[in-house]
Amino acid sequence: MSNNLRINKNNFIDQTVRISFKFNGKKLFGYKGDTLASALLANNIHLVGRSFKYHRPRGIMTCGSEEPNAIVQIGNDPSLTDPNVRATEIELFEGLEAFSQNCWPSVNFDVGGINNFLSPLLPAGFYYKTFMWPASFWEKYEFFIRHSAGLGKSPTKPDQDLYDHQYAHFDVLVIGGGISGILSAKLSAEKGLNTMLVDDKNYLGGSTIYQDDNNFKINNENSNQWIKKQIEDLKKLPNLTIKNRTSVAAFHGYNYLLARENLNDHLSSYERKGNIRQRLWKIRAKKVVIATGAIERPLIFSNNDRPGIILSSSIKKYIDYYGVKTGENISLFTNNDSAYETAISLNKSGVKVKVIIDIRENSNSILSKQVERSGIKILKGYTVIDTDGYKKIKSFDVMKLSKDGGSVVGNKITYKCDCLGISGGWTPMVHLFTQSGGKLKFRNNDNVFIPDENKTPSKQISVGSSNGDFELDDVINNTVKNIKIFLGLDKNDLENLNIKCSKEKQKRNIWLLPSNKPISKTKPFLDFQNDSTAKDVKLALREGFKSIEHVKRYTTTGMGTDQGKLSNMHALGIIADTTGTNMGDLGTTTFRPPYTPLTFGAIVGRNVGKFFDHTRKTAIHDWHVKNKAQFENVGQWKRPWYFPKNGETMHQAVQRESKAARESAGILDASTLGKIDIQGEDASEFLNRVYTNAWSKLAIGKCRYGLMLNEDGMVYDDGVTTRLAENHYIMTTTTGGAANVLSKLEDYLQTEWPELNVYLTTVTDQYSTMSICGPNSKKIIKKIIPSLDLSDESFPHMSFKNSKINNVNCRIMRISFTGEHSYEINVQSNYAKDVWERCIEAGKEFNITPYGTETMHLLRAEKGFIITGQDTDGTLTPSDLQMDWIIGKMKYDFIGKRSLYRSDTIREDRKQLVGLLTDDPKEVLEEGAQLVESLDKPIEMLGHVTSSYFSPNLNKSIALAVVRSGKKLKGKKLIVPMENKNINVTITDTVFYDKENKRLNA
Amino acid sequence: MKNKYSIFSLIKNAFSGHENWQRAWRDPEPKKEYDAIIIGGGGHGLATAYYLAKKHKINNIAVVEKGWIGGGNTGRNTTIIRSNYLWDASAGLYDHALKIWEGLSQELNYNVMFSQRGVMNLAHNLQDVRDLKRRTHANRLNGIDAVWLNTQEVKKFCPIINTSPNIRYPVLGGTLQKRAGTARHDAVAWGYARGADEMGVDIIQNCEVKGIKRNGNEVEGIETTKGFIKTKKIGVVAAGHSSVIANMAGIRLPLESKPLQALVSEPVKPIIDTVVMSNAVHAYVSQSDKGELVIGAGTDSYVSYTQKGSHNIVEETLRAILELYPIFSRMKMLRQWGGIVDICPDASPIISKTQIKGLYFNCGWGTGGFKATPGSGDLFAHTIANDEPHKLNAAFNLNRFVSGDLVDEHGAAAVAH
Amino acid sequence: MFIINCPYCGERDQTEFSCGGEAHIERPKQPTELSDDQWAEYLFMRKNIKGIQFERWNHIHGCRKWFNVIRDTSNDKIHAVYKMGEKPPIKSL
User: Fold this and answer.
1) Distance from CA of C47 to the nearest CA of B (A)
2) What CATH number does the domain containing A369 carry?
């Protein structure tokens, strides 16, 4: 039976190229040019999936992106499978495997189908009204709800495909390659404008390209012939970029648009290898032409969801474009002239249409008259009231409509069929227009929302049927006229075309068609995927849900993967009718991006895996790697964390490194610390304003520690700043704070203190920093730079000298973050690795030990030095840190000063930094652990442990903490309550090691 | 008395074709005067009215809403509910809410689908570990069920997370609050509306407030598109539009209203059964009962009332999602939207009296207000009824911006949630 | 996704900029003479206008200059840009 519904002649399908594919495991074939949907229909397969809630059998209903039913899982490779793919959009490729979704065990026999019989119990919002008893059972109910919901299956292994981004700037972007888009692109490109034309299909020409009907002629040619020539001319234009298989997903402000180009999904796996799967175009266009067309509406009547019920224009496309008959016994049901075009097409292909049910009393257009002449029976003023057939439509019932259309009269007539085409008129695709901020207006005579030309954002225009023009002559003439104005064009040869077309003369619209049964006994589906019916909408209205958004959310109408493309207008219509509101006043729901679902991979592009975020490495990084460093992420930096030797644990390595640094020499790569070069005659005044302490008197060649606050008085950053020359400083910041500190300083400089003559330059990457500490550090420096006078008199603590190492300029600071005698060498980064290796070489005899951030943290904690961001959390003032000494009380102002004198910041019982010793010196506290005085409930927390280590140099556990009123509590016993034990601690001074600072000059 | 919702009423109504369900709430015209008016018909506003009527017996109340109830951030958020906050004040507030959530469906006789599927917060660097452990310890001592998980335990609880040590910011562990989870956002607004309406509260939709009328330092009423309505007590719960109302009353608030975006994927069969949030790799994700992945993005840096954010925010979020869940690369974004969140400098809310007598504000919830809805309503109702805060919201007063006694949750939750 | 016309560089994509909030809130010259209330007003209170807002932007991934923008926060339309220290080209709209 394969392909027995295929007719032979066709221009668009290459019947010489057979393509094999599988559907639910069954081997089938189609031809090059087919979509999965057309190939399935050619194989007489309509039943493709099951609906979301009632698991009703559902078939292919459309031929485009509005398809609510025929959505399938493509492939079964766990890393490449695609859920929820519309069979109507995916092009057939060799080896395609598709599976029905949301059914078990199979689409033909689905256990979930039982829901259909329970449907009386499952009206809109039923879940809000039940599953509440017993309360503890909700999770059990929910388990079943979750497992019966969902459609396809997510991949379970990482994606193997690549995605790309491309930025593009065009004078004009034309969205849609139908007739109005083609004419717009042509006019634009001929004018010399750099133009892009995108269309989501793999061909241009929209529905005109297969409109081979001599009722539609342009300059005496059938419209399909004429448009073909236009497309050929178009392709020759040099300044036009045409992208097929490209769908505009989003239209943001300022003409920023996102378009997804499919590059791979139509190819066999063999042809895909190494290709990019999808490209996301990020387009800025000076002007945008929306020519996105219109989609056909269904009609709402009972059991309008059976497989075999297809939109009339889709039947036409299947026969005219794909050469596929959607049935052998087709009838049509319509409220407009479109179905007559379908009838003519079917007739021409030898498919006799049995009957056309037209709800209009008459329709005397050229088309309808021609159909009538051809002998097809037309029932005017009739409606379909019900259908029959479970997995495929078998018959439908018809009755005469009353004059007002509110009921049916007379006798029921039953027609057998295997396919029913339905057409409820057309809906302009205004999604992108409204996404961009445009407002719609309602046109009463044919019930469409169209762009309001007075509420259209500037620099864009809607043309063709997306602007509400549905007749060929209107489409062409209005497009040409409006584009001429929009682009400021001269006269052109598209202006005076001779167009012949059939015009629709009569209109009649009934949103919810009447039936001979009470509505409660009918199933008139609105949202086919989500199984919401007209009854649900009416129930929602009865229950007081009034706004369209409420109705949508309560009934889930329009929330399927088609986002209401087929259902929204009817939902609105039924609300308007039921509440007696004008549809124009009701407004629409918001159309949200994307227009069609957009792959996460395409949105992200290449920025995944190792390109997820930049990795900043110091100039010495390779040496660290070679020496087996373990790294810590600090912001974007990779910092050596510790250097394990011979299978050491982290604890062992850190203990060894810490001891070595105090006993002989240690070396740290401190290059990640932020470095800001500050120059200008007001540099000292600037520092006075940004730091809490005074800077004017700092001598040239001297270093000073500074604390920077936020304007709210809380500690923000810290570091040592060195005065290199009269008007020249180098500031260091924390690693993580570097970028923000620079931005903040620039902000003050440019906006609050423009009178200051100061220039800030970040030199973090330009200079590398290595810190050598320990009692033997002096000897090592002496070995590297023999000429340098290292005496305490000439080069005291907190001072700096310019020098050279092997002819490379460097700055040597004698500063210490460990409490040891130490030197910091700053050198241009290109030379850093060389200088580092020289230090290592020179230090060998002193067992110089490279150490990482963990040892650095331990050593500074022994000295009670804070780390901003670890010991502070944005809620501590300098005074809270017991650093009152650093506040320049004599200073008139500095950032954050005023905040230090607010009623809360001057409280004495604030949390304050203290030291902690555990009663058991072996017990190391957990950082983040809380401190309490008593375990009586409710437990009152006094503070928490900010830093905690086992100190090898003191041979005991030490910690820093912030504790309420901590300053006054020295010697106080507190408890650290852990999950399984309570640890006793005593509050101490924050300095644990070398309280007299003797080692600085050792 | 409204008809009670249950499986029995559902069956009964099925026999009559569901023709006899009562309105969930009325659609009244405003009276001339109310004892209290709540401006803003979101979850917090409706809950406030509900508790004013229920606990404080103030029944002559109107909730005025310029659009449709639940149409603001209530209907736009990612529905995460948790109470694992660092500071005592926050923990008290959010756990109060969580406790109400646990019985809310029964209390309202409306299934809000509160699903305690757990919320996990991931740590990606050593400071994250310290911060999250600190929070976990504080939570435990505050009676909040948070535990620390190591990387293997994280993987076990949510197997689809990429816990490879080789990713850019490996998962170093995380915290888990099992009582936390998600709820059905619309149902919260509707359930409170139905409950409030039953106690006589007038819910007035499509009624925009145009002015606050004051007599000296006291409120007298509100000017609306449906005319002047007299009242002595006004509770403003207008989220992103709080400053707009404040400007009408002639006061300023420490707020900035910024776009916050979220998105959902197409629905798929169950693939992630909990809520996972990450701070450093800015991503959080859960799966709705419908099967959609619900993903929260970040805020933009600028004030905007457009309910639209920038695309780069969405892109950055999905980048983080794919870093942690590379299996989602082929999933498709179905829908993306934005809300307007009112952000306080300390990332904590304001539930407070103001300098004007009879004018109360409940705002500044920023990116995380949904989870607090029942607690916020309860405490705000208390504050309005008694003209003084409950002890659980005393810390969330306006004066903290003057005194400096902020409740700074930045360190604990700099991520939108 | 707006385009901002940096007064130093010209039109650039929004992603190159970062917003610094409401403009023309001058840092008090004599903070110590302010009451706690006045200081809080400067520090935290914002107009947060729905409509025409004067605000500060920084071309952070460009020239790193700060400047002012007049933008309608109800539709994100930018009406003018001007340098720091310059008078707004429009008073209000």
Assistant:
1) 6
2) 3.50.50.60
Tell me if chain C has a CB within 8 Å of the CB of B355: no
Q: What per-residue confidence (pLDDT) applies to C92?
A: 62
User: Which homologous superfamily does the CATH classification assign to the domain defined by C3-25+35-83?
Assistant: Folate-binding superfamily (3.30.2270.10)
3-state SS of A517-583 is: CCHHHCCEEEECCCCEEHHHHHHHHHCCCCCHHHHHHHHCCCCCCCCCCCCHHHHHHHHHHHHCCCH
Q: Per the domain annotation, does A232 fall within a domain? A: yes
| Contact criterion met (CB < 8 Å) for A752 and C26 | yes
Q: Buried b / exposed e across A386-396, counting CB within 10 Å, b at 16+? A: bbebebbbbbb
**Pairwise CB contact (< 8 Å): C34 & A254:** no
Q: Write down the pLDDT at residue B3.
A: 80
Q: Which among C40, C74, C76 has CB closest to B402?
A: C40
Whole-angstrom distance, CA of residue A101 vs CA of residue B291: 13
CB contact under 8 A, C14 and B303: no
Has residue A98 been placed in a domain?
Answer: yes
Cβ-defined contact of B68 to A869 (cutoff 8 Å)? no
Best of B304, B340, B354, B405 to disrupt the C interface by mutation (most C CBs within 10 Å)?
B304
Kindly determine whether residue B411 and residue A874, on different chains, have CB atoms separated by under 8 Å: yes
Q: What integer pLDDT is reported at residue B90 of this predicted model?
A: 96
Closest CA to A566 of A599, A598, A536, A530: A530
Give the dihedral sign, CA A911/A914/A917/A919: negative
**Pick from A763, A794, A819: which residue ends a domain?**
A763
Average pLDDT (A739-761) is 97
Please report residues of A whose CB lies closer than 8 A to that of C1: 252-254, 256
Range of the domain at A535: 513-595
Cis ω on the peptide bond leading into residue A593 (within 30° of 0)? no
Query: Is B308 in contact with C76 (Cβ distance < 8 A)?
Result: yes
Q: Give CA–CA dist A533/A574, Å, rounded.
A: 11
Residues A179 and A69 in one domain: no
**Closest Cβ–Cβ partner in A154, A258, A561 for B311:** A258
Instruction: Let me know whether A283 and A322 are in one domain.
Output: no
Q: Where are the beta strands (DSSP E) in B50-205?
A: 61-64, 80-81, 119-123, 146-149, 173-177, 181-182, 202-204
- Residue C36 with chain A: CB contacts under 8 Å: 902-903
Give the C-alpha separation, A477 to A148, whole Å.
51
- End-to-end CA distance of chain A: give it in Å, rounded: 96
The 3-state DSSP class for residue A965 equals coil
Partner B contacted by C15 (CB < 8 A): yes
Whether omega before A938 lies within 30 degrees of 0, making that bond cis, reads yes
pLDDT tens digit string along B57-78?
999 999 999 999 999 999 999 9
Tell me how far apart the 2 most distant CA atoms of chain B are, in Å.
Answer: 66
Decide if pLDDT at A724 tops 50. Answer: yes
Q: Which residues of A touch B315 (CB under 8 A)?
A: 603-605, 607
For residues A248 and A276, membership in a common domain is answered with yes
Partners of A931 in beta bridges: A943
- Look at C15 and B241 and tell me if their CB atoms are within 8 Å: no
**Ranges under pLDDT 50 in chain B:** 412-417
Handedness of CA A79, A83, A87, A88 (dihedral sign): negative
From residue A902, alpha-carbon distances to A352, A706, A714, A789, A897 in Å are 88, 23, 12, 49, 10
Tell if the CB–CB gap between A904 and B403 is shorter than 8 Å. Answer: yes
pLDDT attached to residue A115: 85
Provide the number of structural domains found in chain A: 6
Q: Which of A986, A990, A922, A992 is nearest to A953 (CA)?
A: A992
Contacts of A454 (CB under 8 A, 6+ apart): none
